[in-house]
Amino acid sequence: MKRDSFDLVICGVGGQGIILASNVLCHAAFLESFDVKKSEVHGMAQRGGSVITHVRIGKKVHSPLIEQGNSDIVLAFEKLEALRYIRYLKKNGTVIVNDREIPPMSVLTGAAQYPANIKGKLKRHGMIYFVDAEKIALELGDRRTVNIILLGVLSCFLGFKKKSWKTAISKNVKKKFVDLNVAAFNKGTSLLRNIYSIKKEK
User: Which top CATH class is 6-201?
Assistant: First the structure.
């Protein structure tokens, strides 16, 4: 059932296509006749630093920022980033996590260690879905489609028409990559129909 409003946090590291994913999401929401507000924060994105985008969708949205504890969904492109921004998730919210580890600069330089048992820590919050999006992207022949695969998974929770997503993709990616990205999106939407492709953690 289509809802009247959604607050979403999209997070990951620089170079993962987070901004493109949020642009496609906002475009699709606009085509569904929603008001949309977006806010982006780039933390040394050129070096693989943290990137977070707030997306608010509703009949009328006044502020682009989501307060901690109020996001319906957290879409994380990397596991540590999911843990970093889980504080935004509301009680009983949904978390979609790309099952991928990208060590930050502090870990690469030896100044810190990548946290252990991130999955276990995330399981304390809402409903968590771990997705091996990179494996699917490589099967499609382009690992850059990870972001659109994850959008396909996200779409299953929003209720937007498939036509709106396809149009949004076609308007936000280069023409020669449209078919590839539509295929990636479709792969993502099919994941929730296959219990073996997504690990659902309570």
Answer: alpha beta
- Evaluate if residue 149 carries a pLDDT over 80: yes
CA 127 vs CA 55, 167, 169, 198: distances in Å:
20, 29, 27, 12
Q: Output the pLDDT for position 194.
A: 58
The separation between the first and the last C-alpha atoms of the chain, rounded to the nearest angstrom, is 23
Cβ contact 73:95 at 8 Å = yes
* Vertex 73 angle, CA 95 and 119, to 5°: 15
| Spans of all domains in the chain | 6-201
pTM for this prediction: 0.90
List the structure tokens of 94.
């949904």
Residue 125 tokens read as 């919050």
Residues forming a β-bridge with 76: 11, 97
